[in-house]
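Morning. Coffee machine broken again, so started the prediction first thing and wrote up yesterday's gels while waiting. Chain of 368 residues, entered below exactly as on the submission form.
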Amino acid sequence: MKIVFTTFLFFFFSFSTGTAQEAVFLTNPSFEGTAQYAAVPGGWKNCAFNNEAPPDIHPVKNTNVGMSVIPHHGETFLGLLSKSNSTVESIGQRLKKPLRAGVCYSFSTVLCKSEKYYVLDSKTKKAVRYDGALVLRIWGGASPCGHKSLLAVSPPIKNTDWERFDFQFRPDADLDWISFDVYYTEGAASAYRGNLMMDDASPFIPIDCRSKEPLVNTAELTVPEYKFVKYEVPSNAKEEVHWAVGDLLVEFLDFRVVEKKEDLVNLVFDNCNKVGFLFSSRELMDKRGYAIKEIAVNVQKFKDLVLVVGIPRLGQKLNKQRSKRLKRTFREIGLSKKLYRIELVDENADHSEWLCGQKELWLRLEDL
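Came back before lunch.
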């Protein structure tokens, strides 16, 4: 793949700062993780409106998704889509050090558009195309996924080979959160389906506002290493599983059944993009709770493991309703209370220890 580097300096101020500042590093700037449709790379949070579908970790090995880009750096990269219903995908993280008000920064990342991008509709089996060009927007915030300051906007990304885009900006307030989203090109008559790919993001480098020269020695900067566990999609054949509560036969479902602990971890990860709550609701994304039941059925086979379920601390009433909904789901398949635990998770907590965290619900496994 031909790599072309192009610099766009389009958003800057003529102010200067008198003192050198420290570079601000992103966690997992190369968006490394196990390639998966509708998933969030480690270190990042889904920031879509109403917590809609997360972006994708590419290249997805999924016959339902078709695209034509390979990684620029590392094993995976980020894919962001826009929808015809005026929603866009977004991702963000809490910075280890804030971006400071009045300090000018430079930032760069590689971007491109997949020439062809489609998702097969599960019902109609027809390909839904996402081929439009989009712009990348960079936001700074003081709260999770907050949009306090629009820091920069890219040109329309039409290139189908990776190109590096450079941005310069000067925050007017201290910013603890950074987020990226895509948006429609200026003058678009209506919302449309489009795609934008992102990889190999740089640190935020403090610069002199007039000369644009770095205020740190960039040659000596060392990007913190990000380690991630690579999961494999379980290939186990499905088995018909049924269960009873008391004398009542509840349900028959076809579930994958695993035999090893490492396969159980893979099974949990593979269900990550299927589990979660509807936005600000006690209802699960899958009202039958199929995905979390498939996990729970397999947890029962390992008496030395506990399934930990985290829900965000959003209010006493909703927390109680969601906890009750989860308990009912586990009770339906007879999962012992000893084999699961429900925790409230603070919004600013470190979520890296969890296997899943897509739609207001986190999962992990612990030894008893």
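The CA atoms of residues 140 and 146 lie 7 Å apart. Going to sketch it on the whiteboard this afternoon.
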